[in-house]
Write a structure and sequence with these properties.
Blueprint (H helix, E strand, L loop, with lengths): L8 H17 L3 H8 L3 H8 L7 H10 L5 H12 L15 H12 L2 E6 L10 H9 L7 H13 L2 H4 L5 E7 H5 L5 H15 L4 E6 L13 E4 L8 E6 L2 E5 L2 H17 L3 H14 L1
Length: 283
């Protein structure tokens, strides 16, 4: 089997989980290879995401690692045997890989929770709003890539507007509602669209108001994507070096707690809609 040149974030997550199971069992790669009847190089390739693993081999590995969590094993098998080539594949080689990894993560997520402070969350953006954000990049994007990024962002909306929408909760700081990334017309259109989306049963929009005391320590924009089981949850954060996909249980625990803290101080959905509606009238 040919080695992958660039494993996706989803493929890497499977590799990481298999490595964690082996480490928990106290086995070396050489010992795991002997139990499976393969070379240690093959175990290394599986655990680095450079090659896949069949359902039969994955279940044998789980048995050798004495993993008795059948639901978790089934979830790993689903990842290992998934052959989905989603809409994002048309952008491979045209856009940075994290754009594709994010779309794939959203496609498979059982739920999505997002916090943003300066921008409306991506899946809720209008085309004009998204274009204004990408136009503000330094260095300036070539026109062709700019349009590709806008089109990609618009296609991400399938998770909310498609035939099988994903449960989505957004915490948006009031600052993001005031900041005009484009002109007055585009800003108002974005707020109107946000109001419309907030009425959907599967979408919850809550506003974090300006007038909160002691809020500085929770300034953490992020997305939390629910996995098939909690062990496969993923957090996504923008970092100086690019998009970071976080799967450490310790870090996930901190980010989940931060989300709950921010959710607790945000306005309820009805009051949030009142705030958004008032701002549309002021524009």
């Amino acid at each position: 089997m040919a080695l992958r040149r660039e494993p996706t974030a989803r493929q890497m997550r499977l590799a990481v989980e298999l490595r964690r199971l082996r480490d928990a069992a106290g086995l070396t790669a050489r010992e795991a290879a002997a139990l499976l009847g393969v070379s240690s190089a093959q175990i290394s390739q599986i655990e680095s995401g450079l090659t896949g693993v069949s359902e039969k081999r994955l279940r044998r590995l789980a048995a050798h690692y004495v993993c008795t969590d059948e639901v978790f094993i089934d979830a790993l098998v689903a990842v290992a045997t998934d052959r989905t080539r989603g809409w994002w594949e048309e952008y491979r080689g045209a856009l940075p890989t994290p754009f594709l990894d994010l779309a794939e993560l959203e496609h498979h997520a059982t739920s999505l929770r997002e916090v943003q402070f300066l921008y409306i969350p991506g899946p809720l953006q209008t085309e004009d709003y998204a274009r204004a954000i990408f136009c503000d990049r330094i260095p300036e994007l070539p026109q062709e890539e700019l349009e590709l990024r806008v089109r990609h962002r618009m296609q991400r909306k399938v998770i909310l507007e498609g035939p099988d929408p994903t449960s989505y909760a957004a915490l948006v700081h009031e600052a993001a509602l005031h900041i005009r990334v484009s002109d007055r017309t585009a800003s108002r259109a974005q707020l109107v669209r946000l109001l419309e989306l907030s009425e959907a049963d599967h979408i919850t929009v809550r506003v974090i108001p300006f007038n909160l005391d002691g809020f500085g320590g929770t300034w953490t924009p992020m997305m939390l994507a629910g996995g098939a089981v909690p062990k496969l949850d993923t957090a996504v954060r923008d970092a100086p070096h690019g998009t970071a996909f976080i799967d450490s249980e310790a870090q996930l625990g901190v980010l989940r707690a931060l989300f709950r803290k921010m959710e607790a101080v945000s306005l309820d959905p009805a009051r949030s809609r009142d705030v958004i509606y008032r701002l549309t009238k002021e524009l």
